[in-house]
């Protein structure tokens, strides 16, 4: 597009809103994302959201990975994209890549990204990426403060944890239900690891994920 025609195109945020609204119509959503990325090829938000769509809706894992890679190249410090790519890598059995993304994402999940903090701690629990008791304590602090993740899907993490034997999937299932607002935190008290944990503040460094120099 010429510079003049680019100026008349929707903004990144409008493209993203249109695409999210169209997720139940996959072909329409694909068309919107493609138009959006023609206009804004280095938008980390658009690339990252398209990667999530490709993974969850289209089930096109190769295309999803390509767009996650582009998203992180566009903004290497984008905490949401780093966290989503961590989940994606773990779920495909690429543990080292998942750990690398988690290591970058956790210290960047600032106080404006509370749901992301919970998501990242969930991945750490599911994939034995950090000391369990410390991770549960920090999760308990956030859950006790009312932090929830809405309709974010943890299923692929739970499936991978079952395959790898890295966590109690019953606990993960119930925790995912609490995080999604479908159950109360009290249901987790049947698990000693949760019941005995003392809520602690979010501190990635204590889990072995210090901020990068």
Describe the overall structure:
This protein starts with a helix and ends in an 18-residue tail after the last helix. With 213 residues, the protein is mostly helical. It has twelve helices and no strands.
Task: Summarize the SSE layout with pairings.
Layout: H1 3-7, H2 12-21, H3 26-39, H4 44-56, H5 61-74, H6 79-91, H7 95-105, H8 114-126, H9 132-144, H10 155-164, H11 169-179, H12 192-195
Helix pairs in contact: 2-3, 4-5, 4-6, 5-6, 6-7, 6-8, 6-10, 8-9, 8-11
| Beta-strand residue percentage | under 5%
Q: Report helical residue fraction.
A: 55-70%
Give the termini distance in whole angstroms. Answer: 40 Å
Globally, the shape reads globular
Enumerate the spans where pLDDT stays under 50 for 5 or more consecutive residues. 1-9
Q: What structural category characterises the helix and strand content?
A: mainly alpha
Number of helices: 12
Number of extended strands? 0
Mean pLDDT: 90
Helix and strand sequence: HHHHHHHHHHHH
Using only CA atoms, what is the Rg? Answer: 18 Å
Largest sheet: none
């Amino acid at each position: 597009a010429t510079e003049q025609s680019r100026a008349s195109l929707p903004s990144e945020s409008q493209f993203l809103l249109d695409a999210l609204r169209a997720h139940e119509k996959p072909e329409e959503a694909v068309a919107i994302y493609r138009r959006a990325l023609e206009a804004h090829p280095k938008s980390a938000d658009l690339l990252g959201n398209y990667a999530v769509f490709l993974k969850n809706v289209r089930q096109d894992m190769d295309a999803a990975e390509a767009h996650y890679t582009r998203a992180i190249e566009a903004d290497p410090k984008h905490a949401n994209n780093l966290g989503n790519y961590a989940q994606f890598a773990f779920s495909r059995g690429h543990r080292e890549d998942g750990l690398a993304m988690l290591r970058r994402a956790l210290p960047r999940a600032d106080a404006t990204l509370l749901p992301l903090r919970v998501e990242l701690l969930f991945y750490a629990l599911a994939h034995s990426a950090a000391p369990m008791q410390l991770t549960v304590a920090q999760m308990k602090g956030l859950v006790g403060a009312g932090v929830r993740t809405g309709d974010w899907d943890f299923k692929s993490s739970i499936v991978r944890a079952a395959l790898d034997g890295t966590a109690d999937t019953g606990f993960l299932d119930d925790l995912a239900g609490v995080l999604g607002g479908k159950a109360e935190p009290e249901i987790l008290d049947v698990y000693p690891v949760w019941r005995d944990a003392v809520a602690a503040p979010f501190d990635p460094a204590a889990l072995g994920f210090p901020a990068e120099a």
